[in-house]
Amino acid sequence: MKIAVYGASGYQGKLVLTELARRDIETVLAGRNRARLEEAASAIGLPDAERRSADASDHEALVSAFRGCDAVINCAGPFTSSGEAVVRAAIAAGCHYVDTSGEQLYVKKIFDTFTTEAENAGVTVVPAANDGCVPVDLMAHILADRLEPVEEIITTHVVVGGGGMSRGSLRSVVETIDAIKAGGLAYTDGDWHPGVPARRTAITLPGQSEATPVMAFPVPEVVTIPRHIRVRRVQGLTEAALGDRLNTPLTPEIIESLPEGPDGDGRRTQHFTYVLDATGIDGRRARGIVQGPDTYGTTAVIAVEGARRLIAEPAKPGVLAPAQAYPSTAFLDFLVPHGIQWIIEDAPAT
Ligand SMILES: NC(=O)c1ccc[n+]([C@@H]2O[C@H](COP(=O)([O-])OP(=O)(O)OC[C@H]3O[C@@H](n4cnc5c(N)ncnc54)[C@H](OP(=O)(O)O)[C@@H]3O)[C@@H](O)[C@H]2O)c1
After folding, report:
1. Which InterPro entries did the record assign (predicted)?
2. Is it true that the peptide bond before 259 is cis, omega within 30 degrees of 0?
């Protein structure tokens, strides 16, 4: 099994390299800048791993960089600007593909643009193989098995505590700031729509006795969940307190002055919580909660396992949601030894 990592020189890319090395999977370091790839290879201790440089604007070079690999893990964000080119080249090279994107409109575009191309090439593409979209999409599938047909799914991202965001994540936020401020797409009655007001103004989060104010937020699982669940409405929310932070100006100079991402201690203090509230059309309700440490380390574990499974236990070709590509319970249980807890609880019917 041979996996290429595009954007291998970045913060997330190096965590993915480390996870591939831990799992003893042959790795190709790919990226636009040869010197940065060399630095990454020596930082991670991979002197013998192949390095292949290719700019995202050069289709032929990208295809050559991926040729002979079984899968590509794309960590080169912001994805809105360069992601499509990498997906196109991975498909052309006959590679399965996952990426670490969280950009909702980009994820929708990958489904809209590449489904037929991936099917024809016999490869599987799973965008947003990250700490949020994968566990939430898989839990949604399990919840729906209990409640289908489903009236509504609300997915709430609690602001990550401890550690900070990486420079790459901040660049992705800046690149998509208008969509974030507008609340992103919500799914209603068979299609995705912008500008849908938040379906809740406050949510009682796990471990809290009082409800926390929330606002609409563009999460990728709003795009993936309706692909495998019969559901009328899906919307993403986050804590309203994030709204104030979004008004703080973030220039490229400010971002450059920050550390590449949280260091080992910062990652260990990170704690994420994603909450999924589902309501059946009969009023029955259930809640899924996933919690864990270290968003970037967890994303590396998920992206590597996601790519490995596409190779070892092939899913159908095409662009797939996580729950279409992976067995929900088995994948969630695989994450437990990595510090991820997931639970599903019934809630009082409405
Ligand atoms: N839950 C989530 O949503 C989630 C979780 C984890 C990560 N992520 C996403 O993962 C992405 C990576 O983050 P990061 O912290 O690793 O960023 P980073 O440290 O800035 O690294 C970005 C990498 O992508 C490469 N790159 C950037 N733009 C490129 C372009 N136009 N063409 C070719 N290569 C390009 C960079 O190459 P150079 O080294 O040559 O500059 C670098 O290797 C971000 O978009 C982040 O939001 C999302």
Report:
1. NAD(P)-bd_dom_sf, Sacchrp_dh_NADP-bd
2. no
Share of the chain above pLDDT 90, in %: 91
Q: What is the CATH number of the domain that holds 88?
A: 3.40.50.720
Task: Give, as one character, the DSSP assignment of residue 316.
Answer: -
**Do 206 and 275 touch, CB atoms closer than 8 A?**
yes
DSSP string, 230-294: -EEEEEEEEETTHHHHHTS---HHHHHTS-SS--HHHHHH-EEEEEEEEEETTS-EEEEEEEEE-
Distance from the alpha carbon of residue 168 to the mean position of ligand 1, in angstroms? 5
Claim to verify: residue 151 and residue 257 sit in the same structural domain: yes
Atom of ligand 1 nearest to the CA of 14: 16
pLDDT value at residue 43 = 96
Ligand 1: which residues within 6 Å by Cβ? 7, 9-13, 31-33, 36, 56, 75-79, 81-82, 100-102, 130-132, 166-169, 172, 260-261, 295-296, 299
The tally of domains found in the chain comes to 2
Query: Are 23 and 108 in a shared domain?
Result: yes
Could you tell me where the DSSP H helices lie in 32-121? 34-44, 59-66, 79-92, 104-121
Host domain of residue 105:
2-130+299-328
Label residue 350 by pLDDT band (50, 70, 90): low
Same structural domain, 143 and 290: yes
How many residues are present in the chain? 350
